[in-house]
Amino acid sequence: MSATWWLMQGEAAVGELRQYGVDQPVFLCHFTPGPAWETVRAQFEAWSALRGQDPDGSRTAQVIRSIMDLGLRLVPTDDSPSMALFTECILRIDGHTARLRY
């Protein structure tokens, strides 16, 4: 079984995620940018680029906070409830792939 979600910012479609596999506990997805992708792209690219030691977690927290502040939600294409990013699920986008955990 595969799932599909819309990444939304309010009523604006940021992109679509289509599951193609599972690497427990993560869903592996293809990511297709939507019309509002450019408004959030820099924040996801900053998280994807985060490398190296972060002993106190402050760099990671700063990057994640910038994404949380966008008010993004994942909306399943079935009738399941939507999920707020970083409170109900974690999403990493790297180019045309995404990793979703909830």
Please mark out the parts with pLDDT under 50 across 5 or more consecutive residues, or reply none: none
Q: What is the percent of helical residues?
A: 10-25%
Give the strand line-up of the largest sheet: 5-4-1-2-3-7-6
Characterize the biggest β-sheet. Answer: 7 strands, antiparallel
Computed over alpha carbons, the radius of gyration is 13 Å
Summed up, the domain count is: 1
Q: Structural class of the secondary structure composition? A: alpha+beta
> Gap between N and C termini, in Å?
17 Å
Q: How much of the polypeptide forms β-strand, as a percent range?
A: 35-45%
Tally the beta strands.
7
Tell the overall outline. Answer: globular
> What is the helix/strand order?
EEEHHEEEE
Helical stretch tally: 2
Give average pLDDT, whole number: 94
Organism: Streptomyces rapamycinicus
Protein name: TetR family transcriptional regulator
Summarize the structure.
With 102 residues, this protein is an alpha+beta fold. The chain has helices spanning 41-49, 58-68, and strands at 4-9, 12-23, 26-33, 72-76, 83-84, 90-94, 97-101. A seven-stranded antiparallel beta sheet has the order 5-4-1-2-3-7-6.
Describe how the helices and strands are arranged:
Layout: E1 4-9, E2 12-23, E3 26-33, H1 41-49, H2 58-68, E4 72-76, E5 83-84, E6 90-94, E7 97-101
Antiparallel strand pairs: 1-2, 1-4, 2-3, 3-7, 4-5, 6-7
Helix pairs in contact: 1-2
What does the model show?
- The chain is about 20% helix and about 40% strand.
- Strands 5-4-1-2-3-7-6 form a 7-stranded antiparallel beta sheet.
- A hairpin with a 2-residue loop joins β1 and β2.
- α1 runs antiparallel to α2.
- It is an alpha+beta fold.
- The longest helix has 11 residues.
- It has one domain.
